From TrEMBL:
Keywords: Fatty acid metabolism, Isomerase, Lipid degradation, Lipid metabolism, Lyase, Multifunctional enzyme, NAD, Oxidoreductase, Peroxisome. It catalyses: a (3S)-3-hydroxyacyl-CoA + NAD(+) = a 3-oxoacyl-CoA + NADH + H(+). InterPro entries: 3-OHacyl-CoA_DH_NAD-bd, 3HC_DH_C, 6-PGluconate_DH-like_C_sf, ClpP/crotonase-like_dom_sf, Enoyl-CoA_hydra/iso, NAD(P)-bd_dom_sf. One of its GO terms (biological process) is fatty acid beta-oxidation. Residues 469-560 form the 3-hydroxyacyl-CoA dehydrogenase C-terminal domain. The lineage of its organism: Bacteria, Pseudomonadati, Pseudomonadota, Alphaproteobacteria, Rhodobacterales. This is 3-hydroxyacyl-CoA dehydrogenase. PANTHER family: 3-HYDROXYACYL-COA DEHYROGENASE. Pathway: Lipid metabolism; fatty acid beta-oxidation.
Length: 655
């Protein structure tokens, strides 16, 4: 099919764009649309035009692949102006999603209709930019400043029924969209055509509206703040002046390092669920999923699977533990329903369908089983021996171990080709990162099934080779060592945390340890020492031995009042560490950040050299989706590659 075709439906021309996979608005699409306006205007048989798209969605916005390239005319604002200025009125017929420039083109049309399940949005801030083709001017003219601000500053799309109520679209069209739209347009042409959206009034907005928008902009980062200023300006000046300001601000944001970093993340996230090595490999059908262990991780994993609409069977070692696991899962699903993630009755139905067992025979029908029992090789091996007997030979068996070698867990399995590691992160129903760890015998279909599960759960799946801590926890160990090296060099705990928060992490490395508990890593080190491995003493060990495990003991790297999570610098910690650290020697935050990022990038390069990760972008995704690395910085490998992170001085101590 050609990029653009025009069919006649009586006096209505139906223009169909076909630019797979998502009808991104490339230079060719822009040229074709401008030509279509001229062609329909010149055709005396045409009284109105319906714009629709082939494939899975309406226009998904500007072609992000063109962002780093010199702009090619006609530019998107030219297309928007051509459509609004057309002699024959246009109607946008939306299915799938009208996003970014796609919605801006739809708002230049005199009419907009949509399929009931369509979505409409201006997600530009998620790419570090803002609407650049009249979105900040036309959207508030259609739905008011308050709702327009919420859509623009959060980048969150809205559903078509809401859009109709708000006045963003004129009608919902069931059945054949093009036919329905043509019929509606023919009817509408019997009455006077509405004025163009740009001609509608937009007055100053109430102070409380802007105050609410300011709160949203604070959370949205730099692009959201610029978008808010542009929106505010649009309510104060005539349309043309505001349009010029919008374009200036958009182009400035598009050239920003944050926008470049966010585009890197955008494409990395879309490549993650479809590794090239698995092209053509069919995953197994995922009907029922088994989860062994209903503790912290098992309950989270089971909840994630239920929220994704999968049938779940939970296996615990006894009825008391099973009851605790089911209660945790129930709380998670009811909380999701309370937040509007799914209807309450649907949550209850899914909970009622949860299989609950204390014998592995209960998992016999499962297509995939995830083990999340104690981090103990003997316990895990016993569980897999039971599953080997209870499940079908082709049932995929996965371990959620954090640190054990999956090859050791797989020893003795009758069908190791169906086994691998699936490393979820806590809380498992929230954290998007999923590390997928094949063993040498893992079959491609098993691996493809794991990636398919990741996609079904809305995770960001990243394949990891086998090493201590896989990709994420290995880098975490390196950066914790670097943070302690800074302490030994005389930098304070608070300085390190403040510097990393200033860079964009929500919490610094020491605050994070207090939140999760210092004892988890301590026990892992003690376990290695018990096995005769040489593991250097860490400053964290000193604290744990003094009973300071973090917030759970009201003291870790910081002190905590019994009724507050507010960290307070601790005199006891200063005394405990005094023999091991230099006299206070503050460092500029930029240098602290440089050293920490250099440590991450150095460990990432070692991971790449060892073939543990497939590429630097995957390491970036691990850090962003598993450890809070700020998205708008692109990840440690991107940040180092982009020359944004000077090589820090040689590391002070070994980890
Ligand atoms: N440009 C280029 N490629 C895109 C693209 C885009 N806008 N959107 C998706 N792709 C590619 C993606 O990389 C993948 O490629 C394939 O399409 C399928 O994507 C002036 C400036 C539309 C909801 O932010 O939200 O307009 O890996 O796996 O799950 O104001 O894609 O197959 O080679 O995500 O069905 C604003 C971003 C741009 C929309 C479909 N628009 N895209 O989801 O498919 S800025 C966006 C999405 C803008 C104007 C400004 C989703 C989707 P490959 P996918 P999906
Ligand atoms: P947990 O102690 O909270 O839960 C373990 C559960 O396993 C308990 O409910 C226990 O009753 C159950 N169990 C033990 N033996 C069993 C058996 N034979 N059959 C069925 N159930 C059994 O532990 P957790 O934090 O959920 O960790 C579980 C696994 O996940 C560990 O391997 C851990 O390394 C890994 N993991 C933990 C985290 C984390 O942040 N906690 C993150 C990623 C991975």
């Amino acid at each position: 099919m050609s990029l653009l075709s025009i069919a006649q439906h009586g006096e209505i021309a139906v223009v169909t764009l076909d630019n797979p996979p998502v009808n991104a608005i490339s230079a060719a699409v822009r040229q074709a649309l401008v030509a279509a306006v001229a062609r329909c205007d010149a055709d005396a048989a045409v009284r109105g035009v319906v714009l629709c798209c082939a494939g899975r969605t309406f226009l998904a916005g500007a072609d992000v692949k063109e962002f780093g390239l010199p702009p090619v005319p006609p530019h998107l604002p030219d297309v928007v102006a051509a459509i609004e200025g057309a002699a024959k009125p246009w109607m946008a017929a939306i299915h799938g999603a009208a996003l970014g420039g796609g919605l801006e083109i739809a708002m230049a049309c005199r009419f907009r209709v949509a399929a009931p399940d369509a979505r409409l949005g201006l997600p530009e801030v998620t790419l570090g930019v803002m609407p650049g083709a009249s979105g900040t001017l036309r959207l508030p003219r259609l739905i008011g400043v308050a709702e327009a601000a919420r859509m623009i500053l959060t980048g969150t799309p809205v559903a078509a029924p809401w859009a109709q109520k708000a006045g963003l679209i004129d009608a919902l069209i069931g059945g054949d969209l093009a036919e329905g739209a043509a019929a509606v347009l023919a009817e509408r042409l019997a009455a006077p055509v509405p004025v163009p959206v740009s001609a509608r009034p937009l007055g100053p907005c109430a102070t409380e509206v802007l105050e609410a928008a300011e709160a949203l902009a604070k959370r949205g980062g730099k692009a959201a703040r610029v978008a808010l200023e542009t929106l505010r300006y649009a309510t104060e000046v005539p349309y043309e002046a505001a349009l010029i300001r919008e374009r200036e601000n958009f182009l400035a944001l598009r050239a920003s390092p944050e926008a470049a970093a966010l585009r890197h993340v955008f494409f990395a996230e879309r490549a993650a669920p479809r590794p090239v090595a698995l092209k053509g490999v069919s995953p197994k059908t995922l009907g029922a999923v088994g989860v062994v262990g209903g503790g912290t991780m098992g309950a989270g994993i089971a909840a994630a699977c239920l929220l994704a609409g999968l049938k779940v069977h939970l296996l615990e070692r006894d009825t008391a533990s099973l009851g605790r696991g089911r209660d945790t899962i129930g709380r998670t699903l009811r909380s999701a329903a309370a937040r509007g993630k799914l209807p309450v009755e649907e949550a209850e139905a899914r909970l009622a369908g949860l299989g609950a067992h204390t014998d592995a025979a209960g998992l016999a029908a499962c297509d995939l089983v995830i083990e999340a029992v104690f981090e103990d090789i003997a316990v895990k091996r016993q569980v897999f021996a039971d599953l080997d007997r209870a499940c079908r030979p082709d049932t995929v068996l996965a371990t959620n171990t954090s640190y054990l070698d999956p090859r050791r867990i797989a020893q003795g399995l009758s069908h190791p080709e169906r086994f691998l590691g699936l490393h979820f992160f806590s809380p498992a129903h929230v954290m998007k990162l999923l590390e997928i760890i094949p063993v040498p015998q893992t079959a491609p279909a098993t691996l493809a099934t794991a990636f398919a599960l990741g996609g079904r759960l809305g995770k960001v799946p990243v394949q990891s080779g086998i090493c201590e801590g896989f990709i994420g926890n290995r880098i975490l160990k390196r950066t914790r060592a670097e943070a302690e090296a800074l302490l030994r060099a005389g930098v304070s705990i608070a300085e390190v945390d403040a510097a990393m928060r200033g860079f964009g992490f929500r919490m610094g490395p020491f605050e994070t340890q207090d939140l999760g508990g210092l004892d988890i890593a301590y026990l892992q080190r003690e376990g290695a020492r018990a096995e005769g491995l040489e593991v250097a003493e860490t400053l964290g060990d000193i604290l744990v031995r003094a009973g300071r495990k973090g917030q759970k003991t009201f003291g870790g790297w910081y002190d905590y009042a019994t009724d507050s999570r507010q960290p307070v610098t601790s005199a006891e910690v200063a005394a405990l560490l005094a023999p091991h650290v230099a006299a206070p020697a503050p460092l500029p935050p930029a240098l602290i950040v440089a050293r920490m990022l250099a440590a991450m990038a150095a460990e990432g390069r070692a991971i790449l050299d060892e073939g543990i990760a497939g590429g630097p972008a995957e390491i970036d995704l691990v850090q962003i989706h598993g450890y809070g690395f700020p998205r708008e910085k692109g990840g440690p490998m991107y940040h180092a590659e982009a020359g944004l992170c000077p090589e820090a001085p040689v590391r002070a101590t070994a980890s």
